[in-house]
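INPUT
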Amino acid sequence: MQKYSIFNLVKNAFANHQNWDLAWKDPTPKKEYDVVIIGGGGHGLATAYYLAKEHNITNVAIIEKGWIGGGNVGRNTTIIRSNYMHDDNALFSEFGMDLWRKMSQDLNYNVMFSPRGIINLAHSDAQMNVYARRGNSMRLNGIDAVLLNREQVREIIPMADFSENVRFPIFGGLMQPSAGTARHDAVAWGYARQADSMGVDIIQNCEVIGFDISGGKINGVRTSRGDIKAKKIGLCVAGSTNVLAEKLNMTLPIETHLLQACVSEPVKPVLDGVVTFGAGHFYISQSDKGEMVMGGDLDGYNSYAQRGNLPTLQHVLTEGIAMMPFLSKLKMLRTWGGIMDMSMDGSPIIDKTHIEGLYLNCGWCYGGFKATPASGWTFAHTIAQDRVHELNSGYSLNRFNTGHLLDEKGLGTKTWIS
Amino acid sequence: MTQSFRLNDVGLINRDKKISFKFNGVTYYGYEGDTLASALIANGVHLVGRSFKYHRPRGFFGAGVDEPYAIVQLYRNGETEPNIKATEQELFEGLEAKSVNCWPSVNFDVGAINNFLKIFLPAGFYYKTFMWPKSFWYKVYEPFIRKAAGLGVASTKHDKERYEHKYEYCDLLIAGSGPSGLASAYAAAKNGARVILAEDKSRFGGTLLTSDVNIGNQTGKEWADGIISELKEMPNVTVKNRSQVFGYYDHNMLVMSERISDHLPSTKKFHPKQRLWYIRAKEVLISSGSIERPLVFGNNDTPGVMLSSAAKEYLKVYGVLVGKKPLIFTNNDSGYETAIELKKNGVDPIILDTRKDPHSEIIDEAKNLGIEIKFSYVVVAAQGYKKVKSADISKISDDKEQLGTIENIKCDCICVSGFWTPTIHLASQSGNKTQFKEEIDAFIPGESKQNEKTLGAANGIYTLDETLKSSFEVGNEISKKITNKENKVSFPNVVEKKSTVHDKFWCVPLPKGKNYKRFLDFQNDVAVSDIEIALREGYRSIEHVKRYTTLGMATDQGKTSNLNGLQLVSKIENKVVPAVGHTTFRPPYTPVSIGAIVGREIGKHSKPTRKSPMHFWHEKNNAVFVDAGVWLRPRYYKQGNETLFEGSKREAKNVRTNVGVCDVTTLGKIDIKGPDAAELLNRVYTNAWLKLPVGKARYGVMLREDGIVMDDGTTTRISENHYHMTTTTAQAANVLSHLEYYLQLVWPDLNVNVVSSTEQWAGAAIAGPKSRDLLQKLFPNSDVSNEGLPFMGYMEGDLFGVKARIFRISFSGELAYEVNVESDYGNFMWEKIMEIGEEFQIQPYGTEALSTLRIEMGHVAGSELDGRTIPYDNSLEGLLSKKKDFIGKRSLTREAFTAEDRQKVVGVVPLDKKTSIPEGSHLVKDSNAPLPNPKLGYISASCWSVEHDNPFSLAILKNGKNMIGEKLYVMSPLKNKVIPVEIVSSHYVDPKGERVRS
Amino acid sequence: MRSQNEFSYGGDATVKRPDLNKEISDQEWDNFVYNRKSLRGKHWELWQHISGCRQWIKVERDTATHEIFMTLKANEEISL
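OUTPUT
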């Protein structure tokens, strides 16, 4: 594979950029693979990459209905963090943070991971205590966390509302300095390029029509580009999980919901890190291009439409201005919607299923992007070894039956309330 | 400076009103009715900014919303706004603007070094480098990139302007006041329909303002003026200029932003800057017109290269010449219209037409006027850096592959026309699946998805006659169905010049040995070569192309670039354009102020504030308030320089020794009536309710269906079929909805009504050993003795003429009562309690003392009932009925919920009896264990026990049941604290509950 | 037509709560509490007119297009 580097860039510049290789090929599907991954999003591509890299399984196909990276990996607000309270979530995410930190070099693709820090603002002493519970838990799990007082917050984000005319004054915040952002598309493309180079077939415009199951075992998948045999099939289709579950006759603890996000017009750097509002649900960061990237609540009804409505955005931006009044003078440039797998306790599922050879990776709610490497790594392990890794042992499907729930927010099954 | 490019007698500007303005510190003059762009061009200013990536000089490309170049920083009335399109900003006296994205100045910009490095900076270059050494990305490379990126500067000051919202219904919303909008609006209005006609610009009429056409015996503009003034007079019509319909949402909801004050030097008192309209329309007519496409050639981003339609608009509307030696480069007849207008105004343009031998009325007119026309000619490249100085032109072969000899001709501007792209954004946003129309090489709306129709140029109809006819027809037909009235207007005779077909050719090949950048996206610097690289590297889906190259992602959202990008991809990939497909059109059509989207809900008003009827008493008595959801509650009543700790301790102590009063109005209250009320309570609460006598209260816990505790509170049987339920402040709304859900959907057979009465009652909790004595004086005619009003008893009383409800319930573990009166008498009640309580040393107490009291008696509250705990965890398992079923009961059998070492609430005391335990700390066995250190539980609530005068905390601890007496460590790494503690019972005060019953 | 802001969502309307006091399997209970089909296309769901008459209603809506086909009162049965 062609190596990306400054030298190669210069060399190619003098050749008028005519000699760049394909980042990934466009193969015709073979009749059979060792493993088929359904879903060419971040998690699917990462899974294929780690199957090849960590388990030496390269006879792998990724099949994707549309174009790779077209789902939530290309529609998120690019936040990467491990500031979780529950041990299962925290240790899983922190494992992922390590993968993030070396991802650009690992993939030889600049995914622009930047540890610019995340601050969760608190607006009362009670909320400071709730955050302390999470922050202390993080620290005891070996994750960095700092509790900031009002003045410390003001030093970092002086443009937040520290005035008298504020409904919910800022008391302080919980910061994870090592959290950050990355360039979302690059993550998908970087994994795709490396997976492809190790022999994985990336098959786009290939829709799953059905599954071939007999005697409780999976034998293959029927697609719009023909039948493909495989003894192991992994599902990585957050947003469409319920559609495929229906084809498998499964009903899962997941609802499909719509989350909108938007960006402002680009402006010169004004905000370095990620900030979330504590008296509502709003988060913001500034992209390298200068756009303020913003999101908040779900639209709040089951949806597969990648389009939302303005009242939800109005609500989200109202909280935005409440937190940072200067946003008022910026203009909203672009809005979009993503389809979320909302699981019934807010945490994901990475597990085997009752069908032998069928593996499930779903339920990411709106936390899927940050989990991309850890999800791919553990899912690859689960598929390759046919057993869950310790890191994803908490993400079992039957936890809903046993009561070992991982409810970070304590909201229960009303997944649409965020 | 003189307006050397201004003509004397052309245009719609008001020459009687001269306006002065500043650009980059230089004072210029324009006229009322100018835009910043037209005024600058009139003054010969063509260099206004620098491009995003290569920092190439940028001038003006269009004359409106499609403008990719002329982005400025605006200064108005002491405030500044970034990223204003000069082509949209109307001129006002004292306007100041500056160029963005350049340093130190637009004329000499250091960032322009990128222009010389551009061969190293193709699409996606940043994915391939900046990776070594690892730490340099965040520390070195990225800060540099971030500084270079972005356009204007965001002021971090609070926005002083006001924004408003308006909600409106109408029969027809018509977006765009060009010929199709006017005709359809007029026809519909005549039929009596309620019409809203929205126009983005300040002037109505669209292309009628600039076209050389006649309608009836009037010019196009006269006709438009006539229709508009007639519409403005009609009571059923709302006509709005400076109003952009930017979003088409579900169920025919459209949103429009009206710019009310942006064109004025300052916003008038009581006026908003902008108003956002949510419009629910029965029918929507999209008459948004079309945008001219650029032709693509070398250095086609040089200032002075602009759309031919823009040149015509600057001339006809503003009386401004974009150049004195213009070159017109066109693949269709539109370029000729511009040339003819220029010629009529004393300028000699040269037309380069890519077509070989076209014939039409317009071309004939140009020939007759003596305009020089070169057929089968193209501009190969513009020459000049900060302004076009000349053009390299050449003949092109019939197959459009071969260039001839390159000639250089002098010119000061190049007006390009690559035919027209319908503005289909709104139709597409509505869900309409667009279709590709071969004849115009562009997409038009397909079958209507919601109640929308697209008219005129937006629908790919480019002749005025057909546009007017069909628009009259549609306006009439649709409105007639709504109003059942028809008042048909006679259709006027249209005179327009006939044109012939356009040339599908739009991208000029590179001459041998030249490597000119041929730009597609002018703001984001995306050139033909960038698209080629993306495709070469396998980024082949149009979405990949867009994301890899950033084509169409600038502030103009690709209005002039997307279709050319698409055509290029289809050509290289050898696919038809519809097979490539276009990226999704999403709202907003054009960027909208976030302030306008949010409206008035800012600052203190971002969320409602709820106050109890006693709020002003609390205020007067030095209460320090705390937010409890949207309620404001007194946290403590400050005496002198008391801290929160001192004050709350004093208040809590006074409750334990004398008597205190606390405002509990915020508790949720639900009035429950009906013969099946007891049955409802029996099903929603975990304990038994069927035998509660009248005049008695009972504590209850309700679960969610998943077995998790939802809320707790007391419910009192007021009379046979009437109950009064209380909930926590936080869960009040959820509990009501929860009850309604079960009553309406699950058990409709239950004859019960529930209604929120939170706001009807003001509540005061009176607690402490002297509370009965006080109560007796408040209600001298009632028997409030332990026999007359026993623990959990209820009675009605007369509080000096005010009807009151008296509950003997306790949250503090002390003898305590709660008195409710109608809200209007709340303050009266409070003052009476304080007045009469004086002899008992009464003191008001706030939420902090309330917490202390409940913590030390082990009463669980919000921090334990956090949506993750089951009854057992909170030591509430005694309230689980074994005999009956209730909501959530089935879930309690889950393996984790019944585990032997299940977590449980316990008390925690520091071994030194001195060190306060921070809330949110965790309990561990070994404070020196390596990380991750296993956590056994967490501190949910802490206080200074006034009973024992030492710190006390509640914790939810694993295997809590068997941990009493154990010694553990509390750890708060965030606060750098390790505290050795002993686990004790959660009931730290009066464990037998004797006081509440005394 | 009322604004969406006035309503709050209540999830899948076809999920039936098992009768009180009835012996049911774990599977049946989990199907009620947790498992949802949440399909693409027509979807019967509950909404409450929370800032209005507070009635719960049943709405047949398309989850792919957000089109609303039909509404029923709380006490009307859905015929699938």
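end of record. Chain A touches chain B through 121 residues (CB under 8 Å).
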